[in-house]
Design a protein that fits this description.
9 strands; 276 residues; UDP-N-acetylmuramoyl-L-alanine:D-glutamate ligase; alpha/beta; 9-stranded mixed beta sheet
């Protein structure tokens, strides 16, 4: 069912404007190229409106948040809203500091987001729910999604999606993508992906490409993006295991497989269920 979605990305080469963090910016650019998109990184307030105006989507990532870029994020987000360009929020580390939490809330109040993607602790912090506490930029183990609490988490995500009028994508051992009416439970990926920095940031950029190329089908486009990075991670892990390699090569193989996966490979390898 993702065949048309992935073809739209590869055929249209969506330009993704990233206001993102400098820890993972190069990986985000490379994985966008690998998936069929085109990256542009611009965060100066004097040019963000012009850049977003020529883009297919906008990704706002608060990973290395600073006061200089906050207004750039808001200005770019409002311009994207004016032009019906999908905006994706990656609230990295929200809940870990007052600046991050206040900024995320300000962004949600002033910009309409097509997708909000984070780990479960970040998503709970956005919803003002009692998360067990942010552990830097990683989800707290006490917040992890498992088979026992899956139904409860799904209902929470559906409720938050309705509240924010955004697709919510929660990534972890089990991934959840929901627009309140349609929910994907996704089981692609490998735990080793958590041993390299930036897989979440890379995913948010890929979501930008997939939504930019499929503006009328945001929830399915987001689910396809989550499946494809998880599948790429599985294949990358198999390769490092075979070659007796480590985490640095996992990153390289992740990007390699992202560039090689087509609609047929995705259809065969995607592991998900849909709940209405």
């Amino acid at each position: 069912m993702f065949s048309e979605i992935i073809k739209n990305v590869k055929n249209n080469t969506p330009l993704v404007h990233n206001i993102t963090n400098y820890v993972t910016v190069n990986d985000c650019a490379n994985i966008l190229l690998a998936c069929g998109g085109s990256p542009i990184m611009a965060d100066d307030i004097e040019e963000v409106e012009e850049i977003v105006s020529i883009s297919s989507s906008l990704v706002i990532n608060i990973g290395t948040l600073n006061s200089r870029t906050i207004e750039s994020m808001i200005k770019a987000g409002k311009k994207a809203n004016e032009q019906n360009i999908p905006v994706i929020l990656d609230p990295v580390g929200v809940g870990a500091s007052r600046l991050r939490t206040d900024t995320a809330n300000k962004l949600l109040n002033e910009v309409k987001f097509a997708v909000v993607r984070g780990n479960i602790s970040e998503i709970k912090a956005l919803g003002n729910t009692n998360a067990k506490g942010a552990k830097g930029v990683d989800a707290d183990l006490a917040d992890s999604i498992n088979e026992e609490n899956l139904d409860e988490v799904v209902e929470y995500i559906k409720s938050l999606s309705e509240k924010l009028s955004s697709v919510i994508a929660v990534t972890g051992a089990i991934d959840i993508v929901s627009d309140s009416k349609k929910t994907y439970i996704i089981r692609n990926g490998h735990p080793m992906m958590g041993k390299i920095s930036g897989t979440g940031c890379m995913l948010s950029s890929i979501i930008g490409a997939y939504c930019g190329a499929n503006k009328d089908n945001i929830v399915d486009a987001t689910a396809a993006a989550v499946c494809i990075i998880g599948l790429s991670g599985e294949l990358a892990y198999e390769k490092i295991l075979k070659n007796d390699e480590g985490t640095s090569m996992l990153r390289s193989h992740l990007i390699d497989f992202m560039s090689k996966i087509d609609d047929k490979i995705l259809e065969e390898g995607a592991k998900f269920e849909i709940r209405q």
